[in-house]
Amino acid sequence: MTTTRTTFLALALALSLGTAATAHAHASFEQDEVASESSFNAVLQIPHGCDGKATTEVQVKLPEGFVFAKPQPKAGWELEIIKGDYRKSYDNHGKAVTSGPLEIRWKNGNLSDDYYDTFVINGKISGFDKETQLAFPVTQLCGASDKVVWDQIAAEGQSAHALEHPAPTITVTPAQAGGHHHDDMAGMTGMAGMADAPVKAGSLEISGGAVKAMLPGAKVGGGGFVVKNDGSEEDTLVSVESPAAGRVELHEMTMQNDVMKMRKLDGGIAVPAGETVKLESGGLHLMFMDVKKPFAEGDSIPVTLTFEKAGKVDYTLPVGNAAGGAHKHN
């Protein structure tokens, strides 16, 4: 099998749970049952290090039938996606797909043994017509020489609790008859209809706002909106404030030598005359830091936008899946 590797520097959304109250003694998933032909957020829980040492790398092997995988970047960790051929073909909105991610690795991080964290992979469960147990072998590295391998699979009739290092598993149930399952990642675009009515500020029009729902305990969130400049002069988004967060930063993600990097834009974001600029996941976007209460779907997050020429304008961002990709167009 031929594999290819793509490496990203994941200086992006941090996804961290602040309490270990529900942690297991071994690596496991928050949700352990899902219907076939459904999208699934595999939220892997890492409850401790290696004999007290900090975790520096987490490797997850993806089983056949968990396809179209997309990992959640984590602040301070490099993200490596190992791709290769599936054993069979899978349908992706009418297109036959025969290859994709086979293993995900978060690398060069530092998760102290005193803390608990999660590592998230979104994908689709496909191709199962009867109840099936899917195992995701995990290797947890702590420095150059220490590691814990969670790869044991219980035999028929055996309890996973009897194993010393059980692999994280999920139970796949047959697809629901007539059911329709939305791909969670599909919600990363087309959020304009969720926001309030467009807001005017001088020659600028703000619309299409959205922020992404957060897991309990998370402190960093992301989101954005669309700003259209109908005037004859360029304006600049100087800053954003929100009572829902300690601070809001303007960020940009770019690809540099096959490495995805995120940087803070201290100089603001330009909105050229006659153009539209979209702030969304994967490019220009907002980062909500020190969030006071994790954003939940259905919430509304108030923000105050400050532009160099148009001045201050209040706007509200609905909580859902953040829009993905960033671009400008005339």
UniProtKB/TrEMBL annotation:
UniProt cross-references to Pfam families, sorted A to Z: DUF1775, PCuAC
Keywords: Signal
Signal peptide interval: 1-25
Domain YncI copper-binding: 26-172
Gene3D superfamilies: PCu(A)C copper chaperone (2.60.40.1890), Uncharacterised protein YcnI-like PF07987, DUF1775 (2.60.40.2230)
PANTHER family: BLR7088 PROTEIN, COPPER CHAPERONE PCU(A)C
Protein name: Uncharacterized protein YcnI/copper(I)-binding protein
Taxonomic lineage of the native organism: Bacteria, Pseudomonadati, Pseudomonadota, Alphaproteobacteria, Hyphomicrobiales
